[in-house]
Every structure is written in C-alpha cells, then in structure tokens.
Design a protein that fits this description.
alpha/beta; seven-stranded mixed sheet; Maf protein; 214 residues; 7 helices
C-alpha cells in the first residue's frame, strides 16, 4: 500500500541541529519534534540492532501524538563501534576524554539506525561507514576538548566541524557519519512517496569539503 500523494510532510524526531540541517535536502515540507526517549543502549542487541531500536523508539515517541496526521516521522540514532564496544554520546568531560583517547589513531565504524513510521507502515534500517581518527597526543586531546562541542556527538567528535576536526579519513556516506544518511533515507522516501524530489547532493558537498576518502 503506497502513501497518498499529499502525504509528503516529514517530521524529524530529533533535537540534533546537524540532522535538522540536512532535512531540507530531502524535502521542502518538514517539521521537527523532540523525542521523549532515554538513550540507553540495549546490551542484548548487536550494534546495528541497538541503533535501530533507539531510532524506532524516538520515531514512535513523536508519532503517537500525530497518529491522525498524514506525515512520515523519521527517527535516527548514531553510535560508534570500536573493537566490538559501542560508544554513544559522552556523558561528561572525562567520558569524552576516554573516548577520544581510545579512538585516536584507529579506524572505527559509525552506524546510524533509522526508523520510518506513519499510519500504514513502520520500517527500520541502518547505514554503516568507517572513520579513522588522527593520532593525537594527550596535549592535542586536551586542546580539542577545550574547543569542541563534544557532548553533542557520538564518540565526541564531528566530521563537519572544520575548526576542530580530528578525522583523518572516512569511507562511506559522509551524511551517515553526521547522523542522517541522506542517500539511503532518500531512496526509502522515494519508494514510499509518489512525488519527485531533487537529487540528493549533500554527500558530494561534504566530499568537496573534506576530500574523497574512498
């Protein structure tokens, strides 16, 4: 069953400014809502399952207030995985310090779980990329922590932060690393909505800024 043509509004279930900045590349009709969910990772799930689980909880927490509206609610959750250990957003300065020290000089996975929900369907999926963090001295780590907004990002860093970027290279979707995998979301959105939207060029934009690391 497909959505009606007028059902094109997207509601992003997120307080993340970086995700909100990317939504206009998907559609011109959108709004934002704050999900009421504790971001606690289920230890019994695989990393991909855990990211999808939190994304779905975020989407559902927003959708339950809009069940009679013709909208698509999208929830996202991004996690970092290094040597099988899952890292979310740091809780405080010391937590961020430990994360950056563990990630520096190594390559880790970035997994974003995504959930789509509306009146007639609910689906979840995930996108995976790889990021290599620069080798950092303890001094460099401390200088980074003084300047960066580390509490807002999984792993304590942001690919799009040009002033305090500690990323050496990445493989895969740049928008996924930022937390809103536009390519895959756009593909699923087009499958669900009978409406043409402009080509998704956000990943090309970030590759122009940071270089093509594939």
């Amino acid at each position: 069953m497909s959505l009606s043509k007028k059902m094109i509004k997207v509601v992003l279930a997120s307080d993340s400014q970086r995700r909100r900045d990317l939504v206009p590349y998907l559609t011109g009709k959108y709004s934002f809502a704050s999900p009421k969910v504790e971001e606690i990772i289920n230890p019994n799930l695989s990393p991909a399952e855990a990211a999808m689980d939190l994304a779905d909880k975020k989407a559902r927490s927003v959708f339950h207030k809009r069940m009679l509206q013709e909208v698509i609610v999208i929830g996202c959750d991004t996690i970092i995985v290094l040597d099988g250990v899952i890292y979310g957003k740091p809780k405080n300065l010391n937590d961020a310090r430990q994360m950056i020290r563990k990630l520096q000089g190594k390559t880790h996975k970035v997994i974003t779980g995504v959930s789509f929900i509306n009146q007639i369907y609910n689906e979840t999926f995930y996108v995976e990329s790889e990021v290599t963090i620069k080798r950092l001295t303890d001094y460099a780590v401390e200088e980074y922590l003084k300047a960066a907004d580390y509490l807002e990002y999984a792993g304590g860093y942001a690919l799009q932060d040009r002033d305090f970027n500690i990323v050496e290279s990445y493989k895969g979707s740049a928008s996924n690393i930022i937390g809103f995998p536009l390519e895959k979301i756009g593909e699923r959105y087009l499958n669900r909505v009978d409406k043409k939207i402009r080509r998704l060029e956000i990943d090309r934009k970030y590759r122009e800024i940071y270089g093509d690391d594939d």
